[in-house]
Amino acid sequence: MASGHLPYRVIGDFAVGGVANLRKVRMSDGTIALLRELQTSKLFRFAVRRRFTEGTRHRQVLSPHPNIQNSLGSGSRFFRPYEIIEFVDGMTLRSMMTLNDYRIKENTELIIRQIAQGLSWVHEHRLMHLDVKPENFLVQRNHNVIEVKLTDFDLTREASDNGPHRQMGTPAFMAPEQFIDHVSFPSSDVFAFGLIAYQLLSGHIAFSGKTEKKLWRHQASSQVHPRALHEWNSAISPQLEFIVMKCLEKKLADRYRDMTQVLQALNRLEQ
């Protein structure tokens, strides 16, 4: 991947993220891409800066892959780190779920498989994403074929860096071990994947509660388990239901070890 100063021309603002600003750019070869740069207010917040630069490095390691929002290069300008990333002409999976987009129902299993492919690629590189949620998957159509791409690697860590850590991810998609012991493993990403797949297949969240904190307690508790998927969706195959429910096992030993195992199980459904 290229580093240093990259030839591009800003053509418009795109979005403001948690710690970064996104602007649409045109590269010297005409490619439309996104400039993602650390916000001015975060330049001297060194923990935030470190997460940004580490996330940039991890994205570069993972690029290219069809289910990753790929890196096209990175650099630093006036002490401001930035990266150039692939422009995805679509919307987040969260937005599609909120809008009840018809493309989800028509392509549910394809979307689930592509989510698994992206996360498996992360785990094959001995990394953990640690912020697996619908907001971090971008969905676009390419010649009428749905493409799902994983993004936001600012919390990504080496698979051996298990913790304990204070910052674990987004609570609604955290695994029991993250709530209870503040530790993370590749199987923590598996649990988050299971939560997304469950909702895509059933139209319901796996764990509920009258408040967010009660929902999180149910998510963490070894005594609370989600309803069987076929109770929501009678058309689901027993094999696919088994895979998703195994992803949601509360005990680490009962869950898939990583997303590569999940992808292998999904691939067997096609045989």
Would you write up a description of this structure?
By secondary structure, the chain is of the alpha+beta class. It has two domains: 8-86, Phosphorylase Kinase, domain 1 (2-Layer Sandwich); 90-269, Orthogonal Bundle (Transferase(Phosphotransferase), domain 1). The protein is built from ten helices and ten strands. Strands 1-2-3-5-4 form a five-stranded antiparallel beta sheet, with helices on one face. Strands 6-8-9 form a three-stranded antiparallel beta sheet. Helix 9 (238-247) runs antiparallel to helix 10 (259-269). The two termini are 37 Å apart. 37% of the residues are buried. The model has no long low-confidence stretch (mean pLDDT 93).
In short, what is this structure?
With 271 residues, the chain is of the alpha+beta class. The protein has 2 domains: 79 residues, Phosphorylase Kinase, domain 1; 180 residues, Transferase(Phosphotransferase), domain 1. The protein contains 10 helices and 10 strands.
Beginning-to-end CA distance, first to last residue: 37 Å
CATH topology of the largest domain: Transferase(Phosphotransferase), domain 1
Helical content stands at 25-40%
Number of strands: 10
Give the count of helical stretches: 10
- Counting structural domains, the number is 2
Short descriptors:
single chain, 271 residues, Phosphorylase Kinase, domain 1, Transferase(Phosphotransferase), domain 1, 2 domains, 3-stranded antiparallel sheet, 10 strands, 21% strand, globular
Write the layout of secondary structure elements.
Blueprint: E1 8-16, E2 20-27, E3 32-38, H1 46-62, E4 71-77, E5 80-86, E6 90-92, H2 93-98, H3 102-106, H4 108-124, E7 127-128, E8 137-142, E9 145-150, E10 157-158, H5 176-180, H6 186-202, H7 212-220, H8 229-232, H9 238-247, H10 259-269
Antiparallel strand pairs: 1-2, 2-3, 3-5, 4-5, 6-8, 7-10, 8-9
